Amino acid sequence: LSMVIGSCLLFFSPKAQAIEIELYSYHDFPPFVTGDNEGLTYELANYLEQYSNEKYKFRVRIYPRKRLDNLLNTNSDLIVPWVSPAWFGKNANTKFGWSSAMLSDGNSYISPESAPLDILDRSFLYGRVLGGVLGHRYVNIDEEVAKGNISRMNTSNERTLMLMVANERVDVAVIANSAARYLSSELKIDDKIHFSSAPHSVYLRRILISGHMPKLAKFLDDVTEQMSVDSKWLKILEKYNLN
Predict the structure, then answer these.
(1) Pairing of strands 78-83, 201-210
(2) Which element (helix H / strand E) includes 66?
(3) How confident is the model at residue 243, as a pLDDT?
(4) Of 111, 164, 178, 236, which sees the most CB atoms within 10 A?
(5) CA 56, CA 18: separation in Å to the nearest integer?
């Protein structure tokens, strides 16, 4: 009888519970967040979960960059999507683990279509009013603002920045290309925005892995390595005007 009971218990034993993983992201603007529990970061969480065969459950946690930096300084176990090693200090390549690239992106110069500018270097910005997002740093531009060569007008978010350009309130702005393409379509201002032929910068967005999570790191690298040729992922990018 004990053998029968043991067999029944074995047969009816519950499936191992999925491990819950939080995606810590400070990208709280489109296309990464487009509404309540909506946007590319939430699509990424679902995508990763599907490929984990119910081993992991991914949850999005929007977290301010400064607080996130504090956690990273303690080497806490966490993962951060949509980032590049260049944004986390000199030793970031070796201090943290990194997935394969998920998205090719960069910062674009945009200007009003009524007064288009093609910015080839920072001198093209001299004497102009540059729009930016409060708290954002712009490489090779901030120092010129400090010198008085460029005026900078800040706004609170990327959506408002796009409208400032479309409405000719600034001469030029710097914004992530992924955000600019999405918002230009969403706001129906494609005909009012000019993209400079040369970008401000280019980079690849990856997943940062902090702490010691070798199995999760291996899973993330395996999945992201094949994303660029996966039709499911390419369809997701298409939804956000990122193809």
Answers:
(1) antiparallel
(2) helix 65-73
(3) 77
(4) 178
(5) 5
